Amino acid sequence: MGALDFISDYFSISTRRKKRKAMQTVDIKVKMDCDGCERRVKNAVSNLKGVKSVNVNRKQSRVTVSGYVDPNRVLNKVKSTGKRAEFWPYVPYNLVAYPYVAQAYDKRAPPGFVKNVVQALPSPNAPDEKLTTLFSDENPNACSIM
User: Fold this and answer.
1) Does domain 18-88 have CATH number 3.40.50.1110?
2) Environment class of residue 114 by beta-carbon count within 10 Å: exposed (0-12), middle (13-18) or buried (19+)?
3) What is the pTM of this model?
4) Are strands 24-30 and 113-115 parallel, antiparallel or unpaired?
């Protein structure tokens, strides 16, 4: 039985494998001024293990990395190039209920994007909300007011 126990232990250990990380896309905001900055960031990120593609958009200051990577490792690798980096804080403005509230609107955001912040809905009894719904197309009494 000693030989069989050894063989069974050998096969049970070898069948354990590491779980592979899930395929994901990481967006990072990095300020890049020139071709050298762009090339430095792209080379640093593309050398990471598990990276499938790197897309650098200098106009938007955005780096998109796809692959089997850890988002924090990608962020740290970009920071190691000497650039200030953060995760992409913007979402398209049409996905936000009130895109131009003070917390969401950002002048430095690329066109068509606003910050991804939690937004409070206005109370239905607020005076400005009453006025906007008074002349709304969804108000059945709007014609009688006009």
Assistant:
1) no
2) buried
3) 0.64
4) unpaired
